[in-house]
Amino acid sequence: MEELGWLAARLSAAWLALVLALIVLPSALGVSLGISEAYMWVLVKTLEWATKRIEKGVKKPQPEVLKIPAANGIIERDETPMEKEIAGLHRMEFQFSDIFYFCRKGFEAIVEDEVTQRFSSEELVSWNLLTRTNVNFHYISLRLTVVWVIGVIVRYCFLLPLRFTLAAIGITSMIVGTTLVGQLPNSSVKNYLSEVVHLTCSRILVRALSGTIHYHNRENKPQKGGICVANHTSPIDAIILTNDGCYAMVGQVHGGLMGVIQRATVKACPHVWFERSEIKDRHLVTKRLREHVADKSKLPILIFPEGTCINNTSVMMFKKGSFEIGGTIYPVAIKYDPQFGDAFWNSSKYNIVSYLLRIMTSWAIVCNVWYMPPMVRKEGEDAVQFANRVRSAIAHQGGLTELPWDGGLKRAKVKDSFKEEQQKNYSKMLVRNGSVGSLPTGTESD
Question: What is the pLDDT of residues 85-120, one digit of tens each?
Fold first, then answer.
């Protein structure tokens, strides 16, 4: 028994030594030994072969839902405004057939609305040999099944232990390093050490995800004293960006493992964590942001103005708060490739540990990051208009669908004000067309 224990200890020591020498040390120094590149080459070739086998093995034509991007949906929607569509049915007066417009819109929303589908994982066009995405794909051939079994063994018996080891090293180093740096008095030395800890640990964590990140237009990287805003898919968005530079982050307070990391990192870097439900916290955040932006020597602030994670097929409404404080906005578009692994975090379904387990048993995390030219608020432009302009630029660069809806609908019901707005629009249209009789002065139709 003692010999088994001694052998296990030796194997563990050898495993840790290999991980430290071949992965941790090179990643901390920002160099690559070519292991990740070789792995991605083999993975791409394997998935290409699997796709060809699936296409060859399917006897019947594939369902149409698999041939179109998920962002387009299964319903061909008519985007004609309500006023024009109803006006096409009749000219001047109200008719009972007007209700068909609202009935059709209701049926469309029940079958597939354009909002809630953004809070679930994106549907793949071709199977990526992961069981969790095998909703519309079935047995094709023995060879494909053998490759899938080999993939399960590789992912769970080799990649998972390796990634868990790297994640443990990265997270522990982040917590211990920022805690120690946080004990130092405020100075340039503390700021420098904090940046080194954040950058080094982020590089290790990216390796723990088998991350392959392509950064574009680095000449537009956020500068000190600026505000970096990006679309939000996952907590690892922050790691993806910090892998290429340090930021002071602003975000929602979390519990569990995320909470431990937040409480440790804020000791070394002026991150701002807040509770969204607390009004006093929101005022404090605005004050802290104004003070931060006023100091051009401080790290750029990283904000995800959607306020929640979206499945990387669209960009939803940006909260206007980060666009009211002034300063230069540096937009960043992040687009993940779902073929290698789903980066989306459905926080209402998975806690952070379950989510990380799903990530670590995926093939890899592959994404593109575009740094976009800085933007400033135009004269006469309010915060909402500025936020919408930045959102449009990010959506266009990342190839994402732009939606005007609030990401808060992920956990809350539609506000009554949205319903009342549609009712008022229809009422005003009837009054303007003369369908409703003359109203007393100062009276509005319901």
Answer: 555 555 455 566 667 777 776 766 665 666 666 666
Tokens standing for 34?
A: 């070519």
The Cα–Cα gap between 250 and 290 comes to 13
Token pair listed for 90: 């009749």
The answer to whether 229 and 303 have CB atoms below 8 angstroms apart is: yes
Better-scored residue on pLDDT, 419 or 39: 39
Rounded mean pLDDT, 173-196: 90
Q: How many Å separate Cα 374 from the centre of its chain?
A: 21
| Counts for the chain of helices (H) and strands (E), in that order | 14, 9
CA dihedral 23, 28, 33, 34 (to 10 degrees): 90
Instruction: Please report the beta strands in 309-359, taking only residues with DSSP state E, as ranges in sequence order.
Output: 314-315, 329-336
Dig out the tokens for 293 from the structure: 């932006």
Residues 6+ apart with CB under 8 A from 196: none
Strand 365-371 versus strand 401-402 pairing type: unpaired
Interhelix angle 160-181/188-208, rounded to 10 degrees, is 170
Burial bucket for residue 105 (CB in 10 Å: 0-12, 13-18, 19+): middle
List pLDDT tens digits, range 270-320. 888 877 665 556 677 777 788 878 888 888 999 998 888 888 888 888 888
Please provide the size of the chain in residues: 446
pLDDT of residue 437: 45
Both structure tokens of 442: 């100062």
Q: Which helix (H) or strand (E) holds 111?
A: helix 99-112
* Mean pLDDT on 373-391: 90
Nearest CA-CA partner of 126 in 137, 141, 117: 137
Residue 1 has pLDDT above 90, yes or no: no
